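Structural prep section.
Before we set up the soaks we want a predicted structure of the protein with flavin mononucleotide in place, mainly to decide which crystallisation condition to try first. Input record follows.
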Amino acid sequence: MKNNAQKAARLSVAPMMDWTDRHCRYLHRLLSNQALLYTEMVTAPALVRGGALHLLAHSDAEHPVALQLGGSDPVELAQAARLGAEAGYDEINLNCGCPSDRVQSGAFGAVLMTNPGLVAQCVAAMGEVVDVDVTVKCRIGVDEQDPEQVLPGFLDQIRSTGCRRVTIHARKAWLQGLSPKENRDIPPLDYDLVHRMKAEFPDLHISINGGIASLSEARLHLDRGLDGVMIGRAAYHQPSDILASADRDIFGTGEAQDPIDIVRQMLPYIDRHISQGGRLHEITRHMLGLFAGRPGARHWRRVLSEGAHKTGAGPELVEQALMRVAPITA
Ligand SMILES: Cc1cc2nc3c(=O)[nH]c(=O)nc-3n(C[C@H](O)[C@H](O)[C@H](O)COP(=O)(O)O)c2cc1C
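Run finished without errors. Recording the tokens verbatim:
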């Protein structure tokens, strides 16, 4: 059965380079059965010209999972989208929000906000060759653009291709002078503009992104009428706070998970990874925040940060790290 990525998009974990790799997504999926997970950005040239198909590797357990592509050549993006759909991804997303230099020089990411016609061509070309949803992640504008002016035109162009779902990071990107990290914090957030876009484009499924730090904040946006909320850094750093009760609190199904149980469920996965020549640290680096704010969290972090990269480290180190984490008392 085809996974319903749109339903899952009520709450999604943002694409984050170096963070939302397959191990991270496996963990997040154990925490929430329902939320939509995004890959790190994979560039179309890497897949199509570089043949780097290993970048598409993922586990069946991750669904619903969306592949984020970077690129600006419609033909190449269509080829990459086809590869992604063939690899089993439930959605193909085009990155129009990433401001990093490397990405700008390839003329993709946030710089595409200045060329909505090209974005429309890309999205149309991708949509023609795949059956799964093609979606866009964008900013509200870049540089000197006036978001009130450009964002409606941008969304209108995307919609004209048949694309029905978009995630808006509710701040501008400055293409010169700010680092990618600064571009995630310094340009001010304008949530109201995103809400106005939903009123103006009621037939578009619109998710809001940027600075959302809790499920209760996410609920406020959903209650005000947005279709979805995407959470990045908070989901990564405090995965239990954001994801362990998301099924119950956002999707109205299932029970809240105890992260201690999730750690135990990770052990066979860790075992398998290590027996295939992988390192413990490659998985546990995504697990450090699991007990944030809970007694024993410091011990958990310390044992794993100090020991998991050492040769021979395995599941027993995880058990040792868990020793001081207090069980949740009812
Ligand atoms: C480490 C890191 C890597 C990121 N990589 C990507 C990326 O590959 N593609 C993308 O569209 N956005 C990327 N982003 C931006 C996030 O998807 C998200 O839009 C941003 O962090 C704002 O959401 P937040 O405040 O909930 O974190 C990245 C963010 C971080 C922190």
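Observations: The domain at 5-249 is CATH 3.20.20.70 (TIM Barrel).
Flagged for discussion at group meeting.
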